[in-house]
Amino acid sequence: MTIQNVMVIGAGQMGAGIAQVFAQAGFDVLLNDMNEEALDKGMKNIEKLLARSVEKERITEEEKSTALNRLHASSTLEDASSSDFVIEAVVENMDVKRQVFGELDAVAPKHAILASNTSSLPITEIAAATNRPNQVIGMHFMNPVPVMKLVEIIRGLQTSDETYQAIEKMTNQLSKTPVEVKDFPGFVSNRVLMPMINEAIFTVYEGVASPEDIDTVMKLGTNHPMGPLTLADFIGLDTCLYIMEVLHDGFGDSKYRPCPLLRKYVHAGWLGKKSGRGFYQYE
Ligand code: CAA
Ligand code: NAD
Question: Is the pTM of this model over 0.90?
Answer without folding.
Answer: yes
